[in-house]
């Protein structure tokens, strides 16, 4: 196996540490055996699952809107959920596949806290043909729980 060192120390140390040398050979043998055991499954695996965690996303939070765009092309529309709980926007995707050799499950969850000035009733979603999910929430331009607080002078210490 090319990536693992064949010796941890020079040959002249063999006489000093015979037990360490035996342990090193045993460890290298175990690594080789483990690699041979895993490789057939790794070659046959569906490597598209590696892209689930690396989804491209874009978030816009300007004066007029809060918007999220997310690549969910690995998922079918029925495998996606978008919901708002309070002011938390959550996007979830869950996919299950049964194959002759096993079972594959993919999932993701993304959450954002919506700004106070977002109109929760006007939030809308759109999924295009290439699997790009867009969620847009217009802003009302005012905070719902905003008020000005007067600044009071602190009492002087004596």
From TrEMBL:
Domain SHSP, residue spans: 48-154
GO cellular component, one term: nucleus
Signal peptide: none
Metal-binding in keyword set: yes
GO molecular function: metal ion binding; unfolded protein binding
GO terms (BP aspect): IRE1-mediated unfolded protein response; protein refolding; response to heat
Record keywords, A-Z: Metal-binding, Zinc
Record PROSITE patterns: SHSP (PS01031)
Keyword ATP-binding: no
Residues the record lists as binding Zn(2+): 96, 101
InterPro entries with a match to the protein in the record: A-crystallin/Hsp20_dom (IPR002068), Alpha-crystallin/HSP_16 (IPR055269), Alpha-crystallin/sHSP_animal (IPR001436), HSP20-like_chaperone (IPR008978)
Family under the similarity heading: Belongs to the small heat shock protein (HSP20) family.
Record-given protein name: Hsp20/alpha crystallin family protein
Classification of source organism: Eukaryota, Metazoa, Ecdysozoa, Nematoda, Chromadorea
